[in-house]
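Protocol step 4 of 6: structure prediction from sequence.
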Amino acid sequence: GIMYDVAFADDLSKPVGEPVKRMEADQPWEKVRYAENRCNEGAFVLKHDDRYYMTYSANHTAFPHYGIGYATADKPLGPWTKAEENPIAATDLDIGVSGPGHSCITSSPDGNEMFIVYHTHADATKPSGDRVVNIDRIGFDESGKLRITGPTRSPQP
């Protein structure tokens, strides 16, 4: 999958202009099994301190190399720059996590914390299309980089 951006009318009723190619698999971690899968997918965008952050997934969801990266931009339609520290969530078999991906970010009920919700393989030893939901804390470090406290397999209070 290649990601495209397109502007919408103010009432969101229709696209305005033509789609513009923004991102495709080009970082080394995104090119595992590249002949079979050339995917950047599952985009989620949020704004923080006048900067836009887009989380996305790369590789094939059924393989352990599936992971979460992010890119930043000054405007919603880009241009987007992928973070050098990608992936920010990857397989960690020591804790039973395989193939984290396809995420979204939400705030805690009191608005003081952010959480990333994503899926992983149900059985880390047998990656497949069977998935389970994970949730972990996420936030911005002092330099504005997006950081996940995880991945984990434990319930989050």
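Step 5 (inspection) to follow. The radius of gyration is 16 Å.
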